[in-house]
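Progress note, project year one: complex with adenosine monophosphate.
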Amino acid sequence: MEEKTIFKRIIDKEIPSNIVYEDELCLAFHDVSPQAPVHVLVIPKTTKLRSLDDVTEDDVQLIGHIFAVIREVARQLGIADGGYRVVSNCGEHACQTVPHLHFHLIGGRDFTWPPG
Ligand code: AMP
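Model obtained:
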């Protein structure tokens, strides 16, 4: 059996996290190393999606739900009015470090473009 990722251990409550939203499909919690005043990770509970590159038509409903949750969490944390950024690092070149699909919701400051 494959070793659990850190995010699976967070889902299973084996390690603590600062959860801001949870339902049967997904979990949102503060990033341990925030890159902005608000930096939350929104993840599906399923372990079958290691990155965006694993997403297929079968996952349309789940991914849509996650984006609706991102919108709600942005409101809950007070960053919706000023604008925010949603990032999903996919694979080695994009610096993905945890092989469990996740979306960074970051806000509370101005960002630049292009990203680094
Ligand atoms: P990525 O580099 O896109 O794979 O993002 C992984 C993110 O997970 C990074 O921003 C880390 O700071 C964050 N992270 C790693 N371990 C934890 C943890 N135990 N609790 C919260 N966030 C974490």
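The first helix runs from residue 6 to 11.
DSSP finds two helices and five strands in the chain.
No further modelling is planned for this target in the current period.
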